[in-house]
Design a protein that fits this description.
378 residues; alpha+beta; six-stranded antiparallel beta sheet; 17 helices; 55% helix; elongated
Length: 378
C-alpha cells in the first residue's frame, strides 16, 4: 500500500508540474521543472525557449543555456535580455570575445541599460584590462541609475591602485547609489569599514559600517570580529563585549564557522608595539579548570607574516581572595617552555586595557619571569 501511494503521489506531482505553464514555473524559479520542456522545443514560443535557456543558466549549464538562447533568437526573439544572458553564459565559460559580441548586441537594443554597460566593464576587468574597465564603468554611471553596481567597481579599481583616500570617498558614493538588494552594497560597506579602520583610523566610522553589514546579514559571523575590533579601538568596550557575547551564543549554538568552532576564540583587538602588530584573541568558553585559557595574545614579526611570541591568560588555583585567579603566561616559541609572569588578576574581570598593559610590560623588559610575585591588575 505504501509503495502504491508513493507512486501515485509522484505521478500527481509530475502531472501538476506539467499542468503549469513554463511562464508560471519560471516566475516561481522552479528551474528543474522548466528544463523538462526541453523536448517540446519545436512547439514553444521564442519567449518560452528563452525561459528554458535561463533555467539552464541558473542550473549552471551554460552550453545548454546558449543553445536555447540561440533557438529563441532563431525563432524571432530580438531584445536586449536574450543577448545579455547569452553574453553572461559566455563570460562564465571564459569566452570573453564571444561575450563582448553579445553584450554589444544587448547595448544596441538598450543603450541606456546600466546593467548591460556594467557587464561590458566586467568583461574588460576579467581580462585584466582595468583602465579600460574603469572607462566603461565611468560611462555606466552616466546612464540612469537602475543598477548601481558600477559605482562599486569604480571604487574597487581605485582601491586596487592604492589611492585609499579617493577610494574611500568613492565607496561612500557607491553606498548611496547601490540598492541594498545588490550584493555589492554589502561589499561596499565592508570596504568602508576596512579603510576607516586601517587608513583613516576613524574607528567609530569603521564600526558604523561593519554594524550595518551585520544588521543586513546577521548570520555571517565573519564580520563580527571586525566590528568588535573597531569598537575596542574606539574605546567603546561595552559595545565590543555585546557583539562578542552574540558570537559566544552562536558558538554554543554551533553555528560559527568550522575554524571558529575549532579554535574556540575570536580576534577582539589589534594594536602595535615598536612597529609590530599585536592581536588579542578572546575565548568563548569561560575558563573552569586550572590552565584553561581566557585570552591569547600574538606578537607578529615586523613583516607581519609570522608569530614571534604567544602570551596567554591562564586560570590558576586561587588560594585566597587576594591571590590571583588568572595569570599572564607565555609559550616560548623556540623551546616550547611554559613561562609564568608575576602578573595576575584576582577576579574574572580582565579588561582589555589591563591585559595589553601587562603584555607591553613584558615586551619592554619591565616584567620578567622569576620576578617578585606582586600581582597587579584586578
Amino acid at each position: 500500500m505504501k509503495t502504491i501511494l508513493t507512486i501515485t503521489l509522484t505521478v500527481l506531482l509530475f502531472s501538476f508540474s506539467f499542468g503549469q505553464t513554463i511562464t508560471e514555473l519560471h516566475e516561481n524559479r522552479d528551474f528543474q521543472e522548466v528544463i523538462k520542456f526541453e523536448k517540446k522545443a519545436n512547439k514553444l514560443t521564442p519567449e518560452e525557449l528563452f525561459m528554458i535557456g535561463f533555467a539552464f543558466f541558473q542550473l549552471e549549464n551554460d552550453d545548454k543555456a546558449i543553445e536555447f538562447y540561440d533557438k529563441a533568437i532563431a525563432k524571432g526573439l530580438d531584445n536586449g535580455s536574450v543577448y545579455f544572458y547569452k553574453g553572461l553564459s559566455y563570460c562564465y565559460q571564459g569566452k570573453y570575445d564571444e561575450a563582448m559580441t553579445e553584450i554589444e548586441l544587448a547595448l544596441d537594443k538598450e543603450p541606456s541599460n546600466q546593467e548591460f554597460m556594467n557587464q561590458k566593464g566586467l568583461i574588460y576587468k576579467n581580462q585584466g584590462q582595468e583602465d579600460k574597465a574603469l572607462e566603461v564603468f565611468e560611462e555606466a554611471i552616466k546612464l540612469p541609475n537602475t543598477y548601481g553596481e558600477p559605482y562599486f567597481w569604480i571604487a574597487h579599481i581605485v582601491h586596487g591602485k592604492l589611492d585609499f583616500e579617493k577610494a574611500l570617498s568613492l565607496y561612500y558614493r557607491a553606498a548611496d547609489s547601490i540598492p541594498e538588494s545588490n550584493s555589492y552594497y554589502l561589499t561596499t560597506l565592508q570596504s568602508i569599514g576596512q579603510l576607516e579602520y586601517t587608513f583613516t583610523h576613524d574607528y567609530t566610522k569603521s564600526a558604523k559600517a561593519y554594524s550595518q553589514v551585520i544588521i543586513l546579514n546577521p548570520t555571517d559571523y565573519e564580520y563580527y570580529p571586525k566590528l568588535i575590533k573597531a569598537y575596542n579601538a574606539a574605546k567603546e568596550y561595552a559595545k565590543a563585549d555585546s557583539i562578542f557575547n552574540l558570537m559566544k551564543t552562536a558558538y554554543y549554538n554551533k553555528v560559527l564557522s568550522e575554524d571558529d568552532m575549532e579554535y574556540k576564540n575570536a580576534a577582539v583587538d589589534e594594536s602595535e608595539w615598536n612597529g609590530q602588530k599585536i592581536t588579542v584573541h578572546k575565548y568563548f568558553e569561560d575558563p573552569k579548570e586550572s590552565i584553561d585559557l581566557s585570552y591569547k595574545v600574538y606578537l607578529l614579526n615586523k613583516v607581519g607574516d609570522k608569530v614571534e611570541r604567544i602570551f596567554m591568560v591562564e586560570k590558576t588555583i586561587q588560594f585566597s581572595e587576594d591571590s590571583p585567579k588568572h595569570l599572564l603566561c607565555e609559550k616560548d616559541k623556540t623551546t616550547g617552555d611554559h613561562i609564568t609572569y608575576p602578573y595576575g588578576w584576582t577576579t574574572d574581570d580582565i579588561t582589555l586595557e589591563e591585559l595589553k598593559k601587562a603584555v607591553i610590560l613584558v615586551l619592554d623588559g619591565k616584567l620578567t619571569k622569576g620576578a617578585s610575585t606582586s600581582f597587579n591588575g584586578k
